């Protein structure tokens, strides 16, 4: 059965979300703080997480950062923080969707279903060893890249960045998320390392000469692969 994590320190809201999740036929795992949420994800297979941001012990931002270090499960923020900046911050930190309280439970269920469908399609795609898009072909087993049939020599980190972005077409990654995923280390606030590698990738992909811009800058947020 599909397991949905519901993490909110407001028991009434957690119970309401749980009720509608279970009516949809999913199994709800309900917790009331960030530490419990992280423990649930580490101890069992969770298919999707619905997280409040302002939780005790560990807030939703930190929870989603910890999740993204090891997992790719969909995350929906459900928060009273309603400004555009709050929403952008939540998505940049690693959430896949953002809903503001008060909310329509049926809309939340619809968004859960949409994220689960997308996740299943993505898992199926990632099970293949090749990614093909607009004349670009990556083979993850051989760690090779071809552009319009011609081999491209990439450094290991360049390949890892390109593969990460191409595996999630149109998903925006912040420089911090790229650094954490590719280097596997804590991010210390400098985007220069990622920027240098992105610049090298663009040069090797001949983005100035070709119509396709594979790697797009999303100003103020990060980068995405044009899928």
TrEMBL record:
First-listed, main subcellular location of the protein, grouped into a coarse class: cytoplasm
Domain of life: Bacteria
SUPFAM superfamilies documented for this protein: CheY-like (SSF52172)
The keyword Transcription appears for this protein: yes
A GO CC term attached to the entry: cytosol
Keyword terms, alphabetized: DNA-binding, Phosphoprotein, Transcription, Transcription regulation, Two-component regulatory system
DNA-binding region as annotated in the record: 128-227
Organism: Siminovitchia terrae (Bacillus terrae)
Boundaries of every Response regulatory domain copy: 3-116
PROSITE patterns per record: OMPR_PHOB, RESPONSE_REGULATORY
Protein name: Response regulator transcription factor
């Amino acid at each position: 059965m599909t397991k949905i994590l519901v993490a909110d320190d407001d028991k009434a809201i957690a119970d309401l979300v749980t009720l509608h999740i279970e009516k949809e036929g999913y199994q709800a795992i309900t917790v009331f703080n960030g530490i419990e949420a992280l423990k649930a994800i580490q101890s069992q297979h969770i298919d999707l997480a619905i997280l409040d941001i302002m939780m005790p012990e560990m807030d939703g931002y930190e929870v989603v950062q910890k999740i993204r270090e090891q997992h790719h499960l969909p995350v929906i923020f459900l928060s009273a923080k309603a400004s555009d900046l709050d929403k952008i911050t939540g998505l940049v930190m690693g959430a896949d969707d953002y809903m503001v309280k008060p909310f329509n439970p049926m809309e939340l269920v619809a968004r859960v279903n949409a994220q689960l469908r997308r996740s299943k399609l993505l898992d199926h795609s990632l099970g293949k060893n090749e990614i093909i898009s607009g004349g670009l072909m990556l083979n993850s087993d051989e760690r090779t890249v071809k552009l319009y049939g011609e081999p491209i020599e990439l450094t290991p980190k360049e390949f890892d960045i390109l593969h990460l972005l191409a595996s999630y077409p149109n998903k925006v990654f912040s420089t911090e998320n790229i650094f954490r995923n590719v280097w596997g280390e804590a991010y210390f606030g400098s985007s220069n390392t990622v920027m240098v590698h992105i610049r090298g990738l663009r040069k090797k992909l001949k983005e100035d000469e070709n119509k396709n811009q594979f790697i797009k800058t999303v100003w103020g947020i990060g980068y995405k692969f044009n899928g």
